[in-house]
């Protein structure tokens, strides 16, 4: 990890901890698609730090969104620069559908500031509360034609804004000055349109495929991950997850086990490590450890739960 990213990650850690979040360790190894996870009551975040946001790859964005959907967290990037210069404070940027904030904007957001402005093709835009704009116009006694003439735009544009379309900042300010009403709509960072792409990397690892076949047989749902410390997320609901790491042997990359355990603890979910290697160990890095042969004996959810409980008992 380079020094600049390390500084930003530690500052993020401090911001979140100060606001009462449980935060994953800032120097966790084995993380690729994200750098920090945090939780405060039902509010959860998955954060990736980049100096230049234009370097965010599609595969990384898809991974962030998949994990956020499964966990009910808001996934976002904290960045510093884009092609046109530094990120503006108070503005939300997007790359591959993932919201991006500057560190200062994220700090303000954590203090309770709402975000209204986002960067789009051709400039900055403000999300419009269309119903409030319509109500304000009617209350003022203006028709769509009257308002469009005063603003200097088409009637269709006014109709689109009243339907909830965003307006450029300059048009919004003209509307606000004429109607003397705040009809901004706050940006919801927890409600982002998911992206899927033919470029999305599919995990063809035979170990992953074999594990998924067993999990499918037990009746659980799952999502494979390609750029995370865990290889598969197994779930019934977002409140009952297992973050599963697949290890060829118990000596392979112990830092992955630590990362799986730390992220699981923050999100209050179950860590699990599956290994091909026969071993008498019941845990690795504080995570219950199950051999692939033991797992093959599980044919339904109850079998899997009993196996996991036996390992957890041994750990405790």
From TrEMBL:
<dbReference type="GO" id="GO:0003677">
    <property type="term" value="F:DNA binding"/>
</dbReference>
<dbReference type="InterPro" id="IPR020886">
    <property type="entry name" value="MTH_967-like"/>
</dbReference>
<dbReference type="Pfam" id="PF01381">
    <property type="entry name" value="HTH_3"/>
</dbReference>
<keyword id="KW-0804">Transcription</keyword>
<dbReference type="InterPro" id="IPR059051">
    <property type="entry name" value="MTH_967_PDDEXK"/>
</dbReference>
<dbReference type="GO" id="GO:0003700">
    <property type="term" value="F:DNA-binding transcription factor activity"/>
</dbReference>
<dbReference type="InterPro" id="IPR010982">
    <property type="entry name" value="Lambda_DNA-bd_dom_sf"/>
</dbReference>
<dbReference type="InterPro" id="IPR001387">
    <property type="entry name" value="Cro/C1-type_HTH"/>
</dbReference>
<feature type="domain" description="HTH cro/C1-type">
    <location>
        <begin position="133"/>
        <end position="190"/>
    </location>
</feature>
<keyword id="KW-0805">Transcription regulation</keyword>
<dbReference type="Pfam" id="PF26553">
    <property type="entry name" value="PDDEXK_19"/>
</dbReference>
<protein>
    <recommendedName>
        <fullName>Putative HTH-type transcriptional regulatory protein OXIME_001311</fullName>
    </recommendedName>
</protein>
<keyword id="KW-0238">DNA-binding</keyword>
